[in-house]
Design a protein that fits this description.
The complex is a heterodimer of chains A (443) and B (386).
Chain A: H1 13-16, H2 18-31, E1 38-42, H3 49-54, E2 57-61, H4 62-71, H5 76-84, H6 93-107, E3 126-132, H7 137-146, E4 154-159, H8 174-196, H9 202-224, H10 235-247, H11 252-270, E5 281-287, H12 296-303, E6 306-311, H13 320-323, H14 331-343, H15 347-352, H16 358-369, E7 374-380, H17 384-387, H18 390-401, E8 406-411, H19 421-442
Parallel strand pairs in A: 1-2, 1-3, 3-4, 5-6, 5-7, 7-8
Helix pairs in contact in A: 2-10, 4-6, 5-6, 6-7, 8-14, 9-11, 16-18
Chain B: H1 9-18, H2 22-29, E1 34-37, H3 44-49, E2 53-56, H4 78-88, E3 97-101, H5 105-108, H6 111-118, E4 122-126, H7 134-155, H8 161-183, H9 194-204, H10 209-224, E5 236-240, H11 248-255, E6 259-264, H12 269-272, H13 282-293, H14 307-324, E7 329-335, H15 339-342, H16 345-354, E8 359-364, H17 371-385
Classes of the chains: A alpha/beta (443), B alpha/beta (386).
Chain lengths: 443, 386
């Protein structure tokens, strides 16, 4: 258990501006009622952003709110609340933290529970979940929330992609998946129309799809600048700078943020400004959501001369031209195909390397392109969606790529009871030694 | 074909329960292809139509995980880990392949762990959706057709609509026979114990459908021939959960002085309560059963006009079971790290309790190592409802 909080320093001005975004998103849910807007509980990477924004629905992001609660070390009271009504501690703590908060707010007749971080989150008028391969809580969490907000309608749509199979050409199955995802997005449009009383403005939706694609592009352009040595930004910052892509997609603010980040990183590279004073080791953050209450650990790495120029986590987008999307005027089809191709983007590369899998192929690509010396994974005990299969990724990486230092850290995203700072730092120290030995062997 | 002479069904069930996979191994020896599957979403009708033997995988709650943890994180469903441990130790070395239906994150996220490490000749991930609207039915039909194509490649034999219709008929008959056996649990006391029933359920899921049906028929005849026991005042319990496939927990319940008279388990009533409708396109009926008729927490149900309607659609069948089987108390036994069931607990518990039936909620491992603790709680619950 960590005894004290250490402030984390941020390398970029962009990352330092992120709390404004997060606060703004939470405040928007509170102001929405005054503005006559509807609020919807929403979940990241569901492909629903453009539709929600085009319908002028204000998203309330439980994952963001729970992350803020964790970072401020205020999550425990909500986790306990949920636990008291038989939600197990082993369930997704993003969900149980937010459900505990919802339960409490209902008990208080809509008033915010005490110590609600940044004013809390507004009561939703609807819940928009997604059933997909990404994560079970995206359809169970809405259902469980409705138990406490029984008047709030729930929509859950499906968005799937072909599962990786080295013996199957996923391209041959793509139309099945795109057709289904498109139909489910259409169902979402109907749901939103019913519960907002407004009709979809299809031209506006198309504009927001354009804006989203531009944002994906500028995001990747900015992040790829981190290939520079020394890297101008690492994962410690990226766990902040992911906010606009993840929670503000399909808004001009998100695009502008990454344009500003691009300019800032360009300037830093020109001035040879790195994250670490003396950059010695470069590491891929291979998988896993971070412990939001322990982001200072990134700084601990930096103090040892270790930086993360690249991460898999929260980089759920790709350059549009690389996805090779066929032209269409149908915005729903564009959304559907973009996501199906994004989720399957690494399949072709994996098929070319015997024994590989797409997630590992992505890590290998990052190791090579960003000139990395090791890989760190974080395994969060309450989240199976991002964290089950990490051991396998590490094993396959060793097998198909060779001997590269790997560290699997263990903890949670929200629940601090699982965290031991001294033990974590000891493991980081040992990993740094392994990196050092590896670098010497490689020279 | 297994012989069930002289009402020996319970003895045969005990044999196949105790030596799980024995018959599959024999069939493999005679040239049959055995395809393993996980979960109630295993597409047994299609597998039967393909001429392969569907074999549902189970673990062993009495055996510690000794090899599996080197491949899978401990945050994964303990049932999935235990079955994988058995598989990696070679307990299912008679398998030609596996069909892994997308049911939950623990299955989805370990698909490549299974496939890469077991290296079976045949592997198919069946991407079952969680939602049940019309586009989802069409999608389910599409992915069932992908399965059919891959099985045709495996066997070298075309699977016709007639093959599927015949398989549907055989599995519907099988389900009806099992429901007939369940009826014998309605008497007070039940004519078949919970432990015996569990052995039949486990044995049945390890056999080809015709042999499974013969076994169930034999057991039913044997049980019907028993003298009707005297009325008792023993609490009648329903057990709710996913793949509980061992007698350990049932022995605990019945050893504490209760009768297990009904279940809502994925190898029990969930598997047998709903049939596939005979539809002109047989795939339509299969898609509808697996998506709309099966009552499982990994299927999202939420399009009722009110929350109460949603609850009825999700859990209403449990209240029906409670009424029909005269259940005094329900035990909700959920495996740790199970998001789909775990998120249902408050709603399910309060829904059942609203009908006046007490519920004991237990979260535990797929292991007997923690049974002593569970036993104490079950005993206290039974005392409370006595």
């Amino acid at each position: 258990m960590a005894e004290e909080r250490k402030p984390r320093t941020l390398a970029t001005k962009a990352a330092a501006s992120i709390p404004k975004f997060v606060r703004g998103n939470l405040a928007a849910t509170l102001k929405a009622k005054e503005e006559g807007k509807k609020v919807a509980d929403a979940y990241i990477n569901d492909g629903q952003d453009e539709i929600i924004r085009a319908m002028d629905i204000v998203p309330a992001w439980g994952e963001s709110f729970a992350g803020v609660c964790a970072a401020k070390r205020e999550a425990e009271q909500y986790l306990r609340k949920a636990e008291a009504d038989n939600f197990s501690r082993s369930l997704c703590t993003y969900a149980t933290c937010t459900i505990g908060f919802d339960m409490w707010r209902e008990e208080l007749g809509g008033e915010m529970p005490p110590k609600a971080p940044w004013g809390g989150m507004g009561r939703p008028d609807m819940i928009i979940g997604s059933a997909q391969q990404l994560c079970d809580p995206r359809f169970k969490w809405p259902q469980a929330t409705q138990h406490y907000l029984q008047d709030v309608p729930v929509y859950v749509g499906g968005m799937y992609y072909p599962q990786w199979d080295p013996n199957v050409d996923h391209h041959e199955q793509e139309e099945i998946y795109v057709k289904y995802a498109r139909a489910e997005l259409m169902e979402l449009v109907r749901f939103c129309e019913k519960h907002t009383g407004k009709k979809m403005d299809w031209d506006r939706l198309s504009e927001l799809v354009n804006l989203t694609e531009k944002t994906w592009d500028i995001f990747i352009d900015a992040y790829e600048l981190r290939r520079a040595i020394p890297t101008p930004m690492d994962t410690g910052d990226a766990m902040n700078t992911m906010v606009p892509l993840t929670f503000n997609l399909a808004t001009q603010e998100a695009y502008d943020f990454y344009k500003a980040l691009y300019d800032e990183l360009t300037e830093k590279i020109k001035n040879k400004q790195g994250v670490a004073e003396n950059e010695k080791y470069r590491i891929v953050w291979g998988a896993g959501l971070p412990s939001w209450f322990a982001l200072g650990d990134f700084h601990y790495f930096n103090e040892k001369g270790a930086v993360f120029p690249v991460e898999v986590t929260y980089r759920n987008c790709e350059k549009i031209e690389r996805l090779d999307l066929p032209p269409t005027n149908d915005p729903l089809e564009r959304i559907a195909r973009r996501w199906v191709r994004m989720w399957t983007y690494w399949y072709d590369a994996a098929r070319k390397r015997k024994g590989s899998i797409p997630k590992v192929e992505r890590i290998i690509s990052y190791i090579e392109e960003y000139k990395c010396d090791g890989v760190v994974f974080h395994s969060a005990f309450s989240c199976r969606s991002w964290h089950a299969g990490i051991v396998h990724q590490a094993q396959v990486l060793k097998k198909v790529y060779g001997d590269i230092p790997i560290l699997i850290m263990e903890g949670d995203i929200v629940d601090i009871s699982s965290y031991n700072e001294a033990d974590t730092h000891n493991r980081i120290d040992a990993f740094i030694e392994a990196l050092d030995a590896y670098k010497k062997r490689s020279q | 074909m297994t012989n069930f002479a002289n009402g020996s069904g319970l003895t045969v069930a005990d044999k196949y329960y105790s030596q799980y996979g024995l018959r599959a191994r024999e069939l493999k020896g005679s040239g049959k292809k055995i395809i393993g599957y996980l979960s109630v979403l295993g597409p047994i009708e299609i597998l039967t139509a393909a001429g392969v033997v569907p074999f549902r995988l189970k673990g062993n709650v009495s055996e510690a995980i000794t090899k599996g943890d080197a491949y899978m994180e401990t945050i994964i469903c303990p049932f999935v880990r235990n079955v994988f441990d058995a598989a990696i130790k070679g307990k299912f070395d008679f398998l030609e392949g596996m069909v892994l239906p997308h049911q939950c994150d623990s299955i989805d996220r370990t698909d490549d762990v299974w496939a890469n490490n077991l290296q079976l000749p045949y592997w198919h991930y069946l991407n079952v959706p969680h939602v049940t609207d019309d586009p989802s039915i069409e999608f389910m039909k599409d992915i069932l057709r992908l399965l059919i194509r891959s099985l045709e490649k495996l066997t070298g034999k075309k699977i016709t609509d007639d093959d599927i219709a015949q398989a549907v008929k055989a599995h519907n008959e099988n389900r009806q026979l099992m429901r007939d056996l369940y009826v014998l649990r309605k008497s007070n006391p039940p004519m078949i114990s919970g432990t015996e029933m569990m052995k039949v359920l486990v044995a049945a899921m390890s056999l080809p459908v015709d042999e499974s049906s013969a076994l169930i028929k034999s057991v039913t005849e044997e049980v019907k021939a028993r003298p009707m026991p005297a009325n008792g005042k023993v609490p009648r319990i329903m057990l709710i959960g996913d793949q509980i496939d061992d007698v350990a927990i049932i022995d605990t319940i019945e050893g504490a002085g209760a009768h297990l008279v009904m279940d809502d388990l994925s190898i029990g009533s969930k598997m047998y309560w709903t049939d596939v409708d005979a539809t002109p396109d047989p795939i339509q009926g299969i898609a509808e059963r697996y998506l709309r008729k099966l009552k499982i927490p990994t299927t999202f149900v939420g399009d009722g006009n009110t929350y109460q309607e949603n609850l009825e659609a999700r859990f209403g069948h449990m209240k029906q079971f409670i009424k029909e089987f005269k259940v005094d108390g329900a035990i909700l036994f959920i495996y740790k790290y199970c998001d789909p069931y775990g998120f249902d607990v408050p709603a399910m518990k309060s829904f059942i309790e609203s009908g006046g039936t007490p519920v004991l909620y237990l979260e535990d491992e797929y292991s007997t190592s923690t049974l002593a603790r569970v036993k104490t709680r079950i005993e206290a619950f039974l005392e409370m409802i006595a």
